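Session log. Operator J.P. requested a structure for one protein chain; no other inputs attached. Running the standard single-chain path with token output.
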Amino acid sequence: MNRAALITIILLATVFRVTAQEQYGILSGSITNPQSIPLDHVIIENEELSIKVFTDLKGKFTLKLPANQKVRLNIYRDFLHADTAITVTLAPGEKREIVLALQYNITILTPAIVTPDIRSHYVPINPNITYQVPTPTGDIISLLKTMGGVYSTDELSSQYNVRGGNFDENLIYVNDIEIHRPFLVRSSQQEGLSFINPDLTKSVKFSAGGFEAKYGDKMSSVLDVEYKKPELGYRSSATASFLGATAHTEGNIANKFTYLIGIRYKSNAYLLKSLDTKGDYKPRFFDTQMLLNWNINTKWSVELLGNITRNTYLFTPTSRVTSFGGIFNPKQLVIDYEGQEVDKYANYLGALTFHFKPSPKNRYKLILSSYHAKESETYDILASYRLEDIEADLGNEGSSIINVVGVSGIGSFLEHARNNITAVVSNADFRGYHRLKKHHVDWGIKFQHEYIDDKLKQWYMKDSSGYVLPNPSGTPGDSVAWDDPSRDLIINPDDYISAINTLNTIRFSGFIQDTWNIGDSSRFSLNYGIRYTFWSYTKELNISPRVQFTYNPRWKKHDWVFHLRGGCYHQSPFYREMRNKYGELNPNIKSQRSYQAVAVAEYAFELWERPFKFTTEAYYKYLDRLISYTVDNVKIIYSGKNDAKGYATGLDLRLSGEFIHGLESWISLSIMKTAENIEGDYIENNDGVLEEVGYLPRPTDQRFAINIFFQDHFPKMENFRVHLNFIFASGTPYSIPNQERKSGLQTDRNGKTTFSRTSWYRRVDIGFSYRLLANDRDRNKNKSNFIKTINEVNIYFEVFNLIGTSNIASHTWVSDISSQMIPVPNYLTGRLINLKFAISI
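Structure written below.
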């Protein structure tokens, strides 16, 4: 049915499309550098007419302009300043083609073209590169993970940490609409598609901290995504691979109505087969989105954004064999499973936006949106395990045979869950934008209603060597033998959660900010603003001042830009943060708070007659009223109370540019430390005296990470390209689930107390692409009409985890015969290949 609907939409759009109208003219052309090399992702913009297009991989662009009107187009590249602008006047129905050589002025910037506005505070991300990055997810989030300050050690997940924050501390906007995370996802293999559809995306901006007041109430980062508004005619694309398929269509009808529709399907069963846990994996993830726009007249327009996501994860495990411990203490965990897991996640989003533009310098926007999530998590899984002492058979050179020399633990555990949650978040958001002579004033007020109905019932029972631990009917920590009569009176769960929570609350928020270009030279720019939030559940009012300052020294021989950013960032608790591990809600919880200071230096230069940019960011964040938590895979388990204070500090370096002409690559280096002091956390010293634990590394304390994305092409074969994605990052702290964070403390061989950490994350993904067909009018003029309509055809061959590293996602904890808890690593995916085919017309 979905396939038939898509075909119908494409046919209707094809029948009614209009490629040109008499009241408009068409401007097309190509943009190169001074050496006549095509430049992709160059921006051609006129803000007064809301025109903004990008050049494609061949440096080409097409846009529709109003006839008989003088239009000034600013032309620039986000990662370099440009000194080019053109003024065009087209006759009705005129089609004009131009060729421009974009001159980069490294010593002098033209104020009329490039001003140090607020755009400079964000890292631009080219969404077109998404298709070139060889990763299992293949989305914009995988591209984001290569940026400085962004940490992730799970290739299956679309979640990410930024500068010491967790997954819930990141803001994501699509066309100014906030996007929410799923509630019940426990592991990365259950995750479906991230919300952002690369086929529909026009531009992406990212800030790792110190962002302005117009963005919402989170402490770590903001990802601002803008979807396309088709400029001309009809376009579509499709991709297919071993992991799924996508399709999209877009069109512009009489410049009055535009449509943008995308469908995605994903199944990562192929990836999950490389995991240690074997069984029948049946993940099915489906997503469809549309963006419709109606230009009523020159002042009014209406926009509708819709999304339907249906994800199902079916899993019947059978067995698992995991070897770990290294050469000094090699062990092997063998598990036999019974039971299955069935998870369903349904998410819906509808947003209606009214745009009113009474004059070129004043705009207003009203956004009415509603997000509906309905998720269920059900599983009954019985596991019988055996913990073995092993040694390798060294009798034969190169042998992989493992000999079992002893058994150090036998037991079983039973997991049960019947969890259901329904959430409805509705918003009314009204915003205004005003351009004055040297000021750009933005303001907004927002009303949000939240309804959440959560039913939790889950337990975990563990039997180790003939005992069920613990006994809920007795003293915690007691054991009940299998032959004890009392064991038949109660299930004896190790972890039992049973809760029914209903929330019906209202939030109010608003902001006002001003961007002031100081002086006539535009060397200085100041953005200052204030934000407020109020939540009816806690009756808490937060005020958050924020400021960003930019200085462009305009040195003759060097092109530098400096930024200072900072402010107060409150994160009002959402449902997850206020619920503790037992499912209980805390009505007295307060907003987490972060005071941030960020210093940035950007240096733009030319090397080998190609553009480059080097960015340095140093930051410090003081954190208080923190809600402590532990992380198990991608599941965050909060304490449900403001019980900690902490800090995060670090340095991010990034070099980006055209190492190979026409192909953008970059390298990012991040150094970071984050720690927290949890109230009431004590430990007994060697003298038997309780003392405060003090600062412990936060679960996101990843000290070091280096990310490289590099592109190249074969000599004299520019259509044959290589794309390399490299990640090398330090491990993160971990502790025993459902226990205090201090359970992660350990004593090394030298008697020094340290915190348990996962091993280093090392991964190399490589992809090869070949452009089978490109739209070349001269070469294709004698070919069939169908060939002429094809814009581009590419084929990709990818190798995931090229070096076959066994990276760790989380740990399974089992008991040995001495009742010691042993962490067994849950390894991520191994080496796999993927074949992908893409076509665009």
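Operator note: The chain has a mean pLDDT of 84.
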